[in-house]
Each structure stands twice: as structure tokens, then as C-alpha cells.
Amino acid sequence: MVTTTPRSRQTQQPAQPPQSPQTPETPETPPSAASSAPTDVLPAVGDDRGMDPVDTATPRAAASDGAAPGDTPARGVGAVLLVGGLVGAVVALVLLLDKLALLADPAFVPSCSIDPVLSCGTIMRTEQASVLGFPNPVIGLLTYPVAAAMGALVLARVALPRWAWWGLQAGTTAGMLFVHWLIVQSLVVIGALCPWCMVAWVVTIAMFWATTVHNLREGHLGGAPAAVRHHGWGLAAWYLAIVVAVVATFPAWAAGLVGLA
Predict the structure, then answer these.
(1) Which residues pair with 133 in a beta bridge?
(2) Cβ distance 82 to 151 under 8 Å?
(3) Which of 62, 99, 164, 244 is 20 to 30 A off residue 251, Cα-Cα?
(4) What is the reported pTM?
């Protein structure tokens, strides 16, 4: 015989809500352990972890390039000085050798005497060819190598002192003024041109221009005007003015060069 328990006597247990997984409690650090921890957590000097990322960007970029800010313009003027100084020294040496040969033999014809206009011999026989009592090329042999040496130092990233740039400015300015005096003498007084001399004109003006622009940019002359940003146009206009003066002085000869005569 099966005995059943009445429903009223059955004990119903309330449903238990689902329990979320318990997060293990982190044990508190004892005061003794906290006090014994090192308090100096700042990185050592030179550690990049303590530097602002904005501050470290510029030095790292400069180090990766191997060049400091403003280094490219300085290397540009160094290249102009080196090449211009070497070319000028070679021109001065050739002219001096021709001058000495002409002194030894009045019938000697210099290598740059091509026609009645391009005639170094005509110019070498004038007083303008020996302004200081000795042949002008001697001045070039004494000055052009100095400019080339300074250009080599700049290309080697040697920081020249301010007085060196002032001296270079004075030297290139004097050379530029002397060259223009010779240009006037050749076009107006003598009436002839020296091909080697014209090469010296070009390199001397280029060295003066590059030195002046650099000194203006670096503040060696008291400021850096905005004109130095487009200084190449000024140099081109300078050369063009000299070409125009030569053509205006010898129009028939210039026309013959381009096949118009």
C-alpha cells in the first residue's frame, strides 16, 4: 500500500537567484611593505620614458638626418666657396703663366686670345692688368685658395666663428668691387674681353652672393631680410645685366656668335 504525503504538508523552498562569480579580493598591502617600496620612480637623466614625445621628436629627426637645423644652407655656401675658389685659383694660375710668357716674349700670343674682342693679350699689355705694380693674377692666387679652404671647412661641418664670416664677407666684397672695376675697364676703356677673366667674374660674384646671403640669414650682418628666400633670382638678374652690357658694347661681335651677322 502506497502512502502519499498531502500537498499541504509539502515544504516548498524559495528559488535562489543566480549568483555572479565572485572577484577575488586583492589583499591589502601591509603598511610596512608600502613604506619599504622605492619612492624614486623617476627615470634617470637621458631616459626617453620621462620626456615629452613632442620634445623628443625634433632632436631624433635631426639625429637621423645627421644634420642640424640650418646645416643645408651652410653646406650650400661651402660648396660655392670650394668650387669657386678652386676655379678662380686655376684661372689665376693660367693668366699668370701667360703674363710671364708675354713678359719674356712680347710676340707671345696667350691661349685665350681668340679674336679682336676675345683678346687676353690686349688686356695683359695695359696698366689695368697690374693695378698694384704686379700682375693681377697674383692677387687671385693669394685669395682664391683661402676661399676654397673655408668652403672645405664648411662642407666638413666645422663651425666657423663669426669673425671668420666677417673676414670672408670683407674679402668677397673687395673681390666683387675689383671685378666690376675690371668689367668697366674692359668694356669702356680697353675695348676687349678676356675669356679667363670672365670666368673669374662669374665665380667671384657667386662667392660674394652666397656669402652675403648666408651672413644675412645667420644674422652676422644684423638681420635676415625676407629677400634671401628668393636670392637666386637676384643672382640671375645680376649675371643677365653683365651679359646685356657686353652685348651692348660689342653688338656686331655678339650677333656673330649667334649667327645673326
Answers:
(1) none
(2) yes
(3) 99
(4) 0.71
